[in-house]
Design a protein that fits this description.
About 45% of the residues lie in helices and about 10% in strands. The protein is an alpha/beta fold and about 400 residues long. Strand 1 and strand 2 form a beta hairpin. Helix 4 runs antiparallel to helix 5.
């Protein structure tokens, strides 16, 4: 009896299925399948992340506020613990998936079912963890974007209790620093209010060496004042006192304390105010109380000077021509306004002016009032604050 042998051509070997399509083993094909599919999947995730991050840049959650929480452990700082757990679950699910594929290759149905079950459970836990994170740590009671109480950020105090901070839309920025410089400073340099000055007091001993009595006494003064104030001892003995004075004046330190050999003989020191330049003599035994009172005086003086300057530049306008004239002179102009965005846009296009706010403490005026620009009836009997936009 004869036998007929049929040899498949190359095309049939390649595309006809069988045990080795593309002349590759089953294991290699599955390996490449997972590599390509994972690459495409994570590329899609990265692209979606990039577009979302760009689109929602103003409301994107802060990582420090999201990744420091752990379920049912609120108030305990656990940086990245939950992320590490979710990463482990994801890797575990990937491993069980590979094991299920390997079991299928060996035609072991029981192991395939077992490993697929573990893969599904791991996947559900991972997706559930993502949902928990979103609900509680991004849009929940401990959220980084919006909490149930309307807060945006929460913090853990020294007693390990979660609290809401006092918030404001007026964040500290370069504009605020610029306003501080323009309001208080002079031709000599900065003038800083004591409550925000990084250095409140600088001590300048009149000494040639660090062994001089004036230098030793300056250290004692620093030790006393440092308990309640921010104090700097200028311990440079290679510079003349005048050079030191100029430097600290330029930096805006509220009080400079000078002490030399003659001052020690008289048991006193000299305090110089940065805001007025006045010099005051203080007994060494009374240095702490005297300095505290002087800092309060400087703070009060700078506040009143700023308030007086602001009030001088605040004006009122009752018609458009008057408004245009006063706004060109600088400062704030108080006027009635309809509140319409289109009306404000026209005002901005015409004279670069915008509304700043509608103050709560402004006194209400009797009668009906009309918009300074368009003439529409104002919805409130209070004046809005306007200023030029630069």
């Amino acid at each position: 009896m004869g036998a007929t042998v049929t040899t498949a051509n190359n095309e049939e070997k390649t595309w006809g299925g069988g045990n080795e399509p593309l002349a590759a083993s089953y294991g290699k094909l599955m390996m490449w399948f997972f590599i390509v599919s994972d690459a495409l999947t994570f590329s899609g995730f990265l692209a979606a992340y990039g577009f979302s991050r760009f689109k929602f840049i103003d409301t994107w959650p802060l990582a420090d506020e999201v990744f420091t929480h752990f379920p049912f452990m609120h108030g305990v700082s656990a940086p990245m613990y939950y992320v590490a757990l979710m990463t482990f679950i994801l890797i575990f699910s990937s491993v069980t998936m590979v094991l299920a594929v390997d079991a299928g290759h060996h035609l072991n149905k029981a192991k395939v079912a077992f490993y697929m079950f573990l893969t599904i459970i791991g996947g559900l836990i991972f997706v559930g963890s993502q949902a928990w994170e979103w609900k509680n740590f991004i849009h929940g009671e401990y959220g980084a974007i919006e909490t149930k109480g309307g807060s945006v950020i929460q913090f853990v105090d020294k007693d390990e209790k979660v609290k809401n901070p006092f918030q404001t839309s007026w964040g500290v920025s370069t504009r605020l620093i610029g306003g501080l410089i323009m309001m208080h400073s002079d031709d000599k340099g900065l003038v800083l209010p004591p409550k925000i000055a990084p250095i409140q007091i600088v001590i300048v001993p009149i000494a040639n060496t660090k062994d001089d009595k004036a230098f030793i006494e300056a250290i004692k003064i620093k030790d006393i004042l440092s308990q309640n104030f921010s104090v700097k001892l200028d311990d440079r003995v290679d510079l003349r006192p005048g050079e030191k004075y100029y430097e600290w004046e330029k930096k805006g330190v509220p009080i400079r304390i000078d002490i030399g050999p003659k001052d020690i003989e008289k048991k006193q020191c000299i305090l110089t105010r940065r805001d007025t330049g006045e010099k005051e003599i203080c007994e060494l035994d009374n240095i702490e109380e005297y300095t505290k009172k002087l800092l309060d005086k400087i703070q009060y003086n700078l506040y009143n000077l700023a308030l007086e300057r602001r009030e001088k530049t605040n004006t009122k306008a009752d018609n458009w021509e008057e408004f245009k004239t006063k706004i060109q002179n600088g400062g704030y102009v108080f006027a009635h306004f309809c509140g319409d965005k289109e009306c404000e846009k026209k005002m901005k296009d015409e004279i670069k002016v915008v509304s700043r706010c509608l103050p709560f403490e402004t006194e209400a005026e009797d009668g009906e009032h009309y918009c300074i620009h368009c003439g529409k009836k104002s919805p409130t009997n209070k004046r809005w604050v306007f200023a030029k936009s630069y």
